[in-house]
Amino acid sequence: MTSNSIHSVIQVFSTNLLSLFVGLVNGFLIPRFLGIEEYAIYKTFGLYVGYVGVMHFGFIDGIYIKYGGMNRERVPKSQLKAELLFLLVFQSIMLMVGVGIGLASSNMIFVPVSLSILPVNMTMFFRFFYQATGSFGEYAKINSFAPVLNLTATLTIVFIVSVRSGGLFIISVVIINYLIFSLLLLWKGRSIFAEKSKRVISKSMFETMKVGIFIMIGNLSSMFFYSMDRWFVKILLRTEDFAFYSFATSMMGMVMILVSSVAMTFYPMLVRRQEEEGLLRSLKSYLMILGAFAGAAYFGFDLIVNWILRDYLSSLEVISILFAGFPAIAVINAIYVNMYKAQKIEKKYFFTVFGMVSVSFGLNALAVVINRSNWTIAAATTIAFYFWFFFSSKDFKGAKTNPREIAYLSVFLIVFFSTTRLLPWWLGLPLYLAGIFGITLLFYKKEFFELIGKVSGALVKRKSSSEGAQNE
Q: Is the pLDDT of residue 470 over 60?
């Protein structure tokens, strides 16, 4: 893992800090303002809109594979313009079909979900393109739009409009998606559209879709895997339970910003260096260490919920279980998923994720049979994370499971559950950090100090670059 890779991670994470700040504000302010019933409506929309990516039928994933590891300057703008126009027309048609179905079925929440198809997928096109070509500065700029607009909308609704309606927040999300899409077309699309386009409807477009379809289906299965628990809660438990569980997963999403920053920057590097076993072995160790330390975030949420969101105390039980999966989730997202794509083994990725969805479904069903509650579903989901962690380790040289990993994760889980479930935050936090630091030095001392050195070096490099730019 080079200093450039660490620099890319820091570059993306620096922008994501803004998303993290806004996520914290929205994550606590919106549920407190809306109340449990309206918050459940708002989170239902969020659950549904997460699946609009299916509507491009793998085209954007095909673009991701096509340009993965390529220098952005080498991509012909005439071809990129044709691909952008193809997707624009395609998604406009999907939007109209979706809105028509929503109006015909009188399912009002389906209308804003359908309206989100065009802006969400067009924005995704730009994000995937810059991600695939390693243009993380451009990616970071795009990523900075949403949090600023979301925070503005939230503060406006809460402090000026003051209407406690989940529908208002849903409308604001749809409007923000269109604003971001419009800004991207004016900012990034202008240079692309200035070029003469290749044929918009051509064989290459459908070949791109064909390449991406298995990745898209795999990604869809992956979304089902990560949202399976919420579907079980939504369908089988009370509205209040869904609100509590959704709040817990929102808190989890905030911590996952770090993991996402790492995962997206790894793909171009893994395309170029996928055969290096030592690289994979080191990356896996680093991610497990980061995941273990990320579990400390539980104690911050414990303090805040007890302080200002006491109506959501029940969500702490879910958080204290789900956060135990961070080491496994970090490795799955940053290494396994990226490696399936980097090696272009789309069908294997699809069948693996489909198998994991089946495992997750079975575990969640068993959890409901044993005890129909949030905590048993959360436990089933965490077990499913570790099942995938161990299952896919056999698919890549350098990522294979070994006794040291098993020992580290086993002790981590003991430390995590004993401090989060049995102790108050003010005592649990220092004991947790001391325990994780101790077991990391015991099992991964070399990797830990390597990681500290690489991060420190990248921060110094970033500071020097910033100072040099200012002097110029």
A: no
Contact 225, 357 (CB under 8 A): yes
H-helix or E-strand spanning residue 275: none
Listed in sequence order, the residues at least 6 apart from 377 whose beta carbon sits closer than 8 Å to its beta carbon are 229, 232, 233, 245, 364, 367, 368
Residue with tokens 């698919």: 395
188-194, Cβ contacts within 8 angstroms, sequence gap of 24 or more: 188/126, 188/138, 188/142, 189/84, 191/77, 192/77, 192/80, 192/81, 192/84, 193/81, 193/84
Task: For 215-250, write each residue's pLDDT tens digit.
Answer: 888 878 888 888 999 999 999 999 999 999 999 998
* Contact (Cβ atoms closer than 8 angstroms) between residue 426 and residue 438: no
Query: Under a CB-based contact definition with an 8 Å cutoff, are residues 62 and 209 in contact?
Result: yes
Q: Please give the Cα distance from 346 to 58 (Å, whole number).
A: 11
The backbone torsions φ and ψ at residue 452, rounded to the nearest 5 degrees and listed phi first, read -60, -45
Nearest to residue 128, comparing CAs of 177, 82, 80, 94?
Answer: 80
**CA distances (Å), origin 429, targets 248, 259, 309, 375, 441:** 19, 21, 20, 22, 18
Instruction: Measure the CA–CA gap between 362 and 337, rounded to whole angstroms.
Output: 22
If you average pLDDT over residues 263-269, what whole number do you get? 61
